[in-house]
Amino acid sequence: MPLSARARVFCVLCWVAVAAQTSPAAQAQQEPGRAAAPVASRLAPGLEKRPAGQALRVSVTDVAAFRQWLARELPKARATAQPRHPDLLQVRGAAAVALAACPWVRFVDVADRPARPERQINSSNLAVNKISLVHRRYPRLAGQGLTVSIKESPLDQQDIDFKGRLVNPDPQAQMLTAHATIMATLIAGGGNSSPSGKGAAWQARIAQSSYDNLLPDDGAGLTSQGVSVQNHSYGVGIESYYGLEARAYDQQARQFPNLLHVFSAGNSGTQPGGAGRYTALPATANITGQFKMSKNTLSVGATTALGQVVPLSSRGPAHDGRIKPELVAFGDGGTSDAAALVSGMSLLVQQAYREQHGALPAASLVKAALLNSADDTGRPHLDHVAGFGQADAQGAVRTMLDNRFREGSLAQGQEQALTLTVPPGTHRLKATLVWTDPEAAANASQALINDLDLTLEQAGQRWHPWTLSTFPHADSLALPARRRPDRLNNAEQITLDLPAAGTYQLRVRGHAVLQGPQRFSVVYELETGLTWANPTAARALRAGSPAVLRWDWAGPATPARLEYSYVGQPQRWRPLSTSLNLTEQAFVWTAPPDTTALLQLRLLTATASYTSDTVVLARPLALDVAYNCPDETLLAWARVPGIAQYQVYQLGATHLQPYRLVPDTALLLTPAEAAGRHFAVAPVLPGSRLVGERGSTIDASRAEHGCYVRSFIARQLVTDSVEFDLVLGSTFQLQSLTLERLQPDGSYLPVQTLAPGRRTTFLLRDLAPRPGRAEYRVRLLLTGGRTRFSNLEEVFVVGGLADVLVYPVPVVSGQPLRIIGPPDQALRIRVVDMIGRQRLEVNTEPSAVAQFDTHTLGAGLYLLRISVAGSTTEVVRRVFVQ
């Protein structure tokens, strides 16, 4: 309801009065030695407009003094402590402006808001960010011994992709959505359910916590669980300020320097900026949550499979102009997926460092490696949409394995240098500096505390980092990056294209170290040549399905020819493209259908040839449980032309393990062997050790597989002719099958016997059924005289008028009423109410099943007088209409 003019004046006067009461002089009198900020600067944006009933999070300098003040000034308000945060309280029953007037209040912020997953659809592709390339080149790197924490709602603890690797499962936890399960699968899924269930760090342990609390989890608790990366694929509304949550994450990053937090940027990329410097600017500054404004974490946007940032991906800048998100990654389901993949990559980078140095790296070093290796996408160098670029797992891991980094510590004015030798033919030199910056004050207009400078020098020349315009106008924010000292970000990057061969100096200087000394991490790479990224021998190509062929090219625009050839066949290279530009770095190809073969691709330029791994081209091979009997279980699969061996897998303690090589397309298991439950199969390519893509994993113990009989169902439960549909899982060892009818004395009468041949579906008939209720089964005769039986199936056979059936009873008014009468006889049906009035008459065509509409009948009990046309003999049936 709009405020009156008098009310508006009164509100303004109230605000002025509160501000006057909290002037620096007044606060100095109330709290000697402390000059507090004005009230407005101690409120999160928009809080002055919120009603007094909402919960607020308050940062105070003296908890006891604040509680005394609250009891005296706002007696109806209630304050509760925030676990693990002694200077924070949650307050209800007070307006934000009134709380900000307290001399012991630093900042009044929003309390926990409902978090929501930032994902729309389900898909996975580890090739886009070169994770599958890491799996191929460095199979020993799979996250072993590391733990990731998934902060959100509970995941599916029964998912076999996590078997044996959940750190803190809660048996009482209720899975509300599949989102956390999908995130955990992308990060560390074991690939047990299917190849698409394999995550980036597929052998890492998985811990869980709740996003009901938006403040950081207890750092000591995370450390005790071995957590080194925590994934946050959730968001709230658009919030563009440095709040208490952002501050708390930056503080925890300093307290636990090896712990990296990875956030999804949000799926609000088309919305205008939130309150603050960039408010209302279209498609700008729409990161979903002030906790993502933290400096020492990673925020990740989403791209398509071809590396283009999706429109819904939230973008920067941060509230003070800093680069947010810092990275983008493939996210077919939005930024949730992208963040999960980067969390998995971070584990691989940590493991690569630990292999070299025996300990976990600083989170700033992991972040530097990821930013430095990222592939440029969008505008050149940096931008407010894609940050430092598309994450590249292979490049980040190589940075660690090659020891292309330096760590150090600087005080104000100090400098350290790293000497680089650049060989001839280098296409690009790239270096990135990252440091874990001290937390800023809540609502700080600029979050950076310590400012380090990165420069590159050679022979009297100096190059500064790339920086972006932060002026709040769409045209300014879209300006190209330019070289100059960076005074906003705690991550700086320098690139130099076509550097002259020689010696260079990377210099890191403490420009303004207010809280020192400041530790830092700097990484570098020298890009040159071409490397195939997809396909790799770690993952097969699917026959008949589109795939994105990928390569890294560090060089100028160069024409090339793309070809493929089948390995082991007469060498013949078939063209895919005769005029490809290597700088495109991707090509979509649909491989030939119904083909199982070994394959290679190559790129040809005027001076060089680049050949891919030898990869398997095949369709996924589906495994089926032909039957599951008490004494044996039969697994079966389709034969693949040209394949002589098949690899069967069984789920072990944590992952699928090779179980048995089989020359046939079936495997018979004893009950003890079948107790392994989960199995999969894949073709083995002749003349190689390469195995094709397996299909989904099946559970051999599930009851629906049946003992030979998949289903045995009567075509009509009430009928004049008895017919059954029988479906078998297999005819292995089956000699004959017989339809049998239960007799009054308890014996079974053979009705029909068939030889199965290769068929697994049958139509069975009783040509001389007995009127009334009857039960049937199928008897299967196996080799060695063994027998198997189906379930019993009941039918009701209508013979003469006396057997007529009416259903359903009761019937809902308006619904059809069905009458089963003698075969091929027309019926006369009279509907009479309970006082003898005829309400309806129906004459049916000759048919076993007749029906009529009951919409003219009200609720009540009726008599159906039924006779065969031309006869005076009647039967009576009672029907209740609801």
Describe this structure in words.
With 882 residues, the chain is of the alpha+beta class. The protein folds into 6 domains: 5-110, no CATH class; 127-404 and 431-440, 3-Layer(aba) Sandwich (Rossmann fold), CATH 3.40.50.200; 529-617, Immunoglobulins (Immunoglobulin-like); 620-704, Sandwich (Immunoglobulin-like); 708-797, Immunoglobulin-like (Sandwich), CATH 2.60.40.10; 801-881, Macroglobulin (MG2) domain (Immunoglobulin-like), CATH 2.60.40. The chain is 14% helix and 35% strand. It contains 13 helices and 54 strands. The strands form 14 sheets. A 6-stranded parallel β-sheet has the order 7-6-8-10-11-12. Strands 24, 26, 27, 29, 30 and 31 form a 6-stranded mixed β-sheet that branches. Residues 1-35 have low confidence and may be disordered.
